[in-house]
Amino acid sequence: MRVLLTEDNADLLLAVSTSLRGAGLAVDTAADLPAADLALTVNSYDCAVFDRMLPAGDALEFVEDRRRAGWPVPVLFLTARAAPADVVTGLGVGDDYLVKPFEMAELVGRVLSLCRRAPSPSAPTVLRCGDLELDPGRHEVRRAGALLTLTRIEFAVLELLMRYQPRPVERRVLLRQVWDEQVDPSSNVLEVQIRQLRRKLRVPPMIHTARGTGYWIEPA
């Protein structure tokens, strides 16, 4: 089960994510709403945990907008806003509401409960870019009908580029989403994977470098 945790307090973010991982959950973290929005665009989650008051605004409004668009993932608001009216409003948009300070064991239990309530995912959509096809469900990539052999990391990098097309994906985003927030930003692991992907995808080339930014993919 996979959880998105959005919290702008770095110490709390680390403490909560560590506890959730200790309970056997995969956890992606975001420090603000734009980062959370990107994570939700490229990943599927069984539960999302949001602090309410974040640098870019109130997460309640962010979740409310997504709800109107049909987003079904269970949400727990983790916040210092403890007034009865805030709790009622939060429960009208989210699925659970926990006030800070809180007991970590209670938070973990509530998140696990919400994960079990998550809707069954529909069949993953096959992603296409020109003659390139990526099937997340079967974990297959084909170009011009020919099956390609990719490593798990290569597949993850390519999937993110294809989900984000035609926009470039920043290097830091690729590192955080494919590896994790602990990766050394000066590491060349991403560049190595991009070189290998370009070789395996063959010519004409599809993956391009946005200098000083990251990479993007477009039909050949």
UniProtKB/TrEMBL annotation:
Listed SMART domains: REC, Trans_reg_C
Ranges of residues in domain Response regulatory: 2-115
Residues that bear 4-aspartylphosphate: D51
Molecular function as annotated in GO: phosphorelay response regulator activity; transcription cis-regulatory region binding
Pfam families membership: Response_reg, Trans_reg_C
Keyword field: DNA-binding, Phosphoprotein
Matches recorded under InterPro entries: CheY-like_superfamily, OmpR/PhoB-type_DNA-bd, Sig_transdc_resp-reg_C-effctor, Sig_transdc_resp-reg_receiver, WalR-like, WH-like_DNA-bd_sf
GO biological process assignments: regulation of DNA-templated transcription
GO CC terms in record: cytosol; protein-DNA complex
DNA-binding region: 124-219
OmpR/PhoB-type domain boundaries: 124-219
Domain of life according to the entry: Bacteria
Protein name: DNA-binding response OmpR family regulator
Source organism (scientific name): Amycolatopsis jiangsuensis
